[in-house]
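Dear colleague,

Thank you for sharing your sequence with our group. We've completed the structure prediction you requested, and as agreed, I am returning the results in plain text so they can be pasted directly into your records. Please verify that the sequence below matches your submission; if there's any discrepancy, let me know and we will rerun it promptly.
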Amino acid sequence: MARLEKLYSQAENIKEQYFIRNRIAEENRQKENEAAVRIQSWFRGCQVREFLSHLHKKATLIQKIWRGFTARALFRQRVKTAYFIMKMNFYNKMAVKIQQRWRGYYVRKYVHNYYARKRYLEGLTRKNEHIRRDLEEFAELQRRERERITLEKEEKEKSIQAQRLHFLLSTKQCPGVFNSPFRAEPDEMELRLRKVKPLLVRSAPKERKTPDLSYLMPKRERLPPIHKKPQGPFRPPLEVQQQRHRPLEPSLRMATSITALEEAREELKRQEWRTCVIDQAFLPFSNTSRNKQYEGMMRTSTPFEQVAYGTKHFREEHKEYLKGKKPFKTVFTTCHVFDKFGRLYSDAGNIV
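Please find the predicted structure tokens below.
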């Protein structure tokens, strides 16, 4: 009875210790569970890594054996191929030598006479050398002839120039341009001027008596006849006459029309219009066609006009359509904290 009384007296203490231990166990249950899971995961990871390492080693061994086998087989095949090619090259070389010896013997004995062909080639070589020598001599003669003609032409031009410049010949009183007193010897042109005679200008041909037909021709001033001896380095009369009576040669500016630029621009516009797909000019900004209304086609009845902004994607534009409709329902249930909004929490988030 004493023990039972003692046990009844300690019942509250036992209950309290029981609840304390249960609470401590409940508090540490999550940590112990996480620790057990961590230990199990580490151990299982070690087992899996060890197994994978074992598989990798075995796979590496299998690959090494297989690659060695295939490499040795490929090497043996390459050795056989190389040996076969070497034998075929040797056989081909020996066959070429045999054919070469036989063909040489057959040609020398039945086709060509070696000594006769040798004499023919020696004679042909001598003839070629003789012809080459003759051609070289002929080319040398032609070169000398060209040089002689060039020298004669230059000499003739210098003589004509000396005749035209004969008025520059020096005299006893006045030295000429080509006989400078500061030179030890006179210039080559001075010596030419002493040798040649002055160029005489032929007078114009005499006019023949012809019937007077001046009343039929338009009156114009006649140029004075060139019959006097010119004093100075003038050009020949024929060249001067051709220059006086040459036709009109207007410049590019004079030959071009005044409206050539405008005509060219119009032609360029016409060419661009032929190759243009859209007649309207390109408008790089969207504001240019903002207020432009859509023009419907005759064969269609659908108004392909642009919808006004906000009437297609926004409900706030037509709020009268939303009156009387049920509120939007979500698929998932909401959080219990927000279901009690207004009863347990104020607008500011403070507890009521």
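Summary note from our side: The chain has a mean pLDDT of 78.

Kind regards,
the structure core
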